[in-house]
Amino acid sequence: MRTCLKAMNVSLENKANSAVAAIRSSTKGVAVVVLTLLVLVVFISTHWIDGTTLTTISSKNEQVLSSHPRKPQSKPIILACGNQTTPVCQRSLSPSPSPSAISSVPQSSPSCPDYFRWVHEDLRPWKSTGITEEMVGRARKFATFRLVVLAGRVYVERYRRPFQTRDVFTLWGVLQLVSRYPGRVPDLDLMFNCDDTPVVKLADHRSSQPPPLFRYCKDDRTLDIVFPDWSFWGWAELNIKPWETLANDLKQRNQRVKWRDRKPYAYWKGNPWVSDSRRDLIKCNVSKHHDWKARLYDQNWDREIKQGFRNSNLANQCDHRYKIYIEGRAWSVSQKYILACDSPAFFVKTHFHDFFSRALIPGLHFWPIREDDKCRSIRFAVDWGNEHQQEAQEMGRAGSSFVQEELKMDYVYDYMLHLLTEYAKLLRYEPAVPEKATELCSESMACPATGLVKEFLMEVDGEVDARRRAVRDASTLRSGGVPSGAGEES
Ligand SMILES: *[C@@H]1O[C@H](CO)[C@@H](O)[C@H](O)[C@H]1NC(C)=O
Ligand SMILES: *[C@@H]1O[C@H](CO)[C@@H](O)[C@H](O)[C@H]1NC(C)=O
Fold this sequence. Notes:
Helix content: 25-40%
Distance between the termini: 23 Å
Shape: globular
Number of domains: 2
Strand content: 5-15%
Number of strands: 13
Structural class: alpha/beta
Order of helices and strands: HHHHHHEEHEEEEHEHEHEHEEEHHHEHH
Bound molecules: 2-acetamido-2-deoxy-beta-D-glucopyranose
Largest sheet: 6 strands, mixed
Radius of gyration: 23 Å
């Protein structure tokens, strides 16, 4: 049975936020920041990192979704690729939803992570009006694809090419969801954009209904609806494995170098050229003249791709005591990897959130870094951590346990189901298959795939039911002809 670690208590959260607000609004310079952080830290160490608080169950938990009457279904999926160029979906594999399955929600279910409550916040703009076909139609101009689920079958109409394979892995996640919860994913019709930056501006829709548009992140000035990003199922271009696999790698790797034996600096590796803030961060790198206690590296993806990713293994990046997170064009998928190291994460003030990051509490899961005084703020945090190793390690562990426990794939799927269920309830029309849509199924997606894309798709698929899966694949999944699934249980 799944349990849900409750790491959040609303009133404490508010206190933390006000402390951070104080840090932000402080114009009196470092002294005030230092003082505020010290107060914050003392507060944390006495109140939060405390087993009893962490396991408190709040009555406000979302119950809807944890309506797991039984464990997520993991019936074997048979990939019958055959030798056709366009494999045919095995229709019999997609059961129709039965209304009774949806309404028989048991009341005694385990609670979901706290970030589930944001589902309601994201859908609030349509709460009283519902979502009409006209509103969805207005989202089309932004959309990468339109997703329709009807009677448990998944249809997609593509409007434009997204960056890399974001759409493939996102849609694969939707297929996995439908196969995990047969009969539970409601009929729906939605527009999805795979780019970084949210576009549905709050300011433009104060008196009109905004178009409902799904994407991976939003900020306080936008109304986009957040959905788990593609990286949970894999990022083939950068050799970033599906989250479940990678989270395990990170867990193992974490244990190899004890926190005290790690380099006592703040580490960051990434592409500095995507935002002003990242360029500004690079100025804090160690030099002949300064040591701000930051060790910053330029991740040159072109070079890494050519060299087979030898130097970019995320699981090997847990060898510093502190890790810096900084947004790029918008939020960055690196956040969960950075948090997973058991090293306190330093978040340079964030503006964007994805579906889970809104549950992260400054001072508990991460240390906030000033955006306008990065170098001094980083050096202060490193010095503090090195002088307060117990507290620093507790913060590192709180961040890691958040991503390892509350961000398990089970919950990611549950969040998707919850969000899609609530979204579908708002629809004021019967979704229909768009004229130019095609049906998606495991065969139509996985059979034609090649290389790492195929490997990751099969790996994710394998996670659901590795043991019971029988892969029958006439076209052979791997070049060597080894059926996938057999070698993927390690
Ligand atoms: C696969 O190809 C063989 C010969 O090329 C053909 O006889 C067979 O019918 C094909 N099978 C399918 C499922 O298309
Ligand atoms: C930061 O400094 C280190 C040590 O001198 C150097 O190896 C690294 O390339 C520098 N990083 C950047 C982004 O310039």
